[in-house]
Amino acid sequence: xxxxxxxxxxxxxxxxxxxxxxxxxxxxHSHVYWYxxxxxxxxxxxxxxxKENIIDESGMPKERFSAEFPKEGxxxxxxxxxxxxDSAAYFCASSPSDGTGNTIYFGEGSxxxxx
Amino acid sequence: QQQVKQSPxxxxxxxxxxxxxxxxxxxxxxxxxxxxxxFPGKGPALLIAIRPDVSEKKEGRFTxxxxxxxxxxxxxxxxxxxxxxxxxxxxxxxxxxxxxxxxFGKGITLSVRP
Lengths: 115, 114
Prior knowledge:
The structure holds two protein chains of two kinds.
Chain A: E1 5-7, E2 10-13, E3 19-24, E4 29-37, E5 43-50, E6 53-56, E7 65-68, E8 75-79, E9 88-96, E10 105-106, E11 110-114
Parallel strand pairs in A: 2-11
Antiparallel strand pairs in A: 1-3, 3-8, 4-5, 4-9, 5-6, 7-8, 9-10, 9-11
Chain B: E1 4-7, E2 10-14, E3 19-25, E4 33-38, E5 45-50, E6 56-59, E7 62-67, E8 72-77, E9 86-92, E10 103-104, E11 108-113
Parallel strand pairs in B: 2-11
Antiparallel strand pairs in B: 1-3, 3-8, 4-5, 4-9, 6-7, 7-8, 9-10, 9-11
């Protein structure tokens, strides 16, 4: 769990601002997943990325949300023009690239509060 | 349509007792079933997982029982301790193909009373 690094851990944004959440996967992992957890809710899948590729973005809202995982550097989840309903915990997870991709490890999360 | 359903929604158990959490899934193509434990303010941590080729897996005080025909699996926590108080999520995914994304249940809150 501690191997997936997320920052910032807590972020406060005013409505209309942009939020950028960063995730560095565990060493040796090239698969990254982003999940959102609303209060009293389970984890909802948002997007699955490999280096420089979006594999599955079926859980991403159609507008304002985007994700990338560049060749160098962390994965970024970007939320433009935030609204109060975006307030949630955003978890990044990673898995190995050696065929055992089911073992998914989560980071500590980034808590976004929109005021 | 909720593909993975957990029950009960919350559970209170006395210290030393057995905690049992159930999970039912819809998609028969799922073939990897993990349980995650989450403490407040923390990320989910993998607890134990099972594949459908076995009916039971035990790791320490934690056991998963799997019933393929009923499309159900459960987590048993033996000798429950106050430190086990947390939220528990079951999940399911596919082990083949390009996408290993997990589909989670809504989670249940377990409270173990001293």
